[in-house]
Amino acid sequence: MFSSEQENSSKPVKYGELIVLGCNGSLPGGDRGRRRSRFSLFQRPTANGVKPSTTHTCSPQAAKVISKNSQHSVSYTLSWSEMVVVEYTDDNETDMFQIGRSTETPIDIVVTETAGGRHGNSPMRPLQSTVSRFACRIVCDRTPPYTARVYAAGFDCSRNIFLGEKAAKWRTFDGQMDGLTTNGVLLMQPTRGSKPAVWREISVCGNVFTLRDTTSPQDRGKQVKDEAPVLLDGSLIDLCGVTLLWRSVEGLSRSPTAGHLEALRLRLNAARPQCPVLLSTLAFPSLDGPRPRRPWVYLTCGHVHGYHQWQGRGIAYKQQSSAETEKRETEREGGRDRGETEIERETESGGEKEEQMEGIENEPIKEGREEKTVKRGREAGRDRGERGGETERSIEEEAEAIRGERECPLCRSRGPYVPLTLGRVSDVYVDAESPSHAFVPCGHVCSERTAEHWSKTPLKRGTNVFHPACPFCLGQLKRDRPYVRLIFQGPLD
Fold it and tell me: Strand pairing of 136-141 and 38-42?
């Protein structure tokens, strides 16, 4: 059972929240039903937890008979002729929530890959999913202190978890079975004191292990007996394609709310930051508002500007000082298109070209599709200075600015020039201070302590590579300078 606070007027016991990193507040297709960017876990009306009961060692045929009953079970394939089936019985003291890619009924929380390095509103999705259909399950105690634990794998429609012959599995010292899923379920607890945060792998039975060697995925890591799969405020769960952040009720009470972030946005805009080049007032847009005055930043120095076309000196300027740039500058002159410029040049040398162009201009045009095509071409040439053309060019120029480097007009430092976007997921903030820093190179804005926290938190990228990433878009951060302090210019008055 999960929903937002608005949908729970009776206020049942709340265990905590799960936030999907990399979405910046909403999924590409919007939050609908069980597929959301944020989940609140509440106590169920009736307990649905399960716990291990009876263990059977039998043939595959007998295992099918055992798995078909109404009880939950976990099947371990040891060989083609031997299987171990562990039956589970009802546990009235716990609630179970299942997470996975499948949209079938047993899954409470449906998750899919978040495209690292792209913004949360990107429509692009990977062609092949790496998130398991039944990835993991979270079990919460129904009595205080309402402890939550994570376990690898989830029960399917037949109430069974099946580990094939190639899956990593073993017998424990007390004779019980345990195993790991193919893609793995990783857990990282928040940093406590000087102890660095490390990723661990969680087994089907909830035991904690060091990470497996990618060259031998059937071999488990070393068991860490002094650690438990308990979810603490700030714990991260990686499901091989999607990363979830767990926030406890106590932690949420100390975190800023969405309303507080909106108040900070309005406070920033009330300060009326100025663009030093265009001398125009900048403003961070609302979630659905227009973005004509959106702030941009030079990531090398942190100076905030509005979007402008000033390239600066050096290599970038020399590259733009070619015939191609002259053509672009001519097209920006409103009604002075290339044809009119060539006529003026030829007029100075004798006027022959002007007569030719006038003859072409007055020449009758053939009827039909060709006539319409030529007319459209002439109208486009006359209307280059209109709003439509300006909008199209501004989009192309913004894309070019993101790809290349710019020189800051204030300090002459060179570096990426990107638009600023406020981080809108309040649960990833570690304090309620004003947004003052931006991640490099994506440009998402948050508080200083939040930027420092996530710049030291390695997130999984690929099979077994970990790098600090922006929590709002999962774009990999720059190693030597993961974030930059923003320098705003105040109003002249």
Answer: unpaired
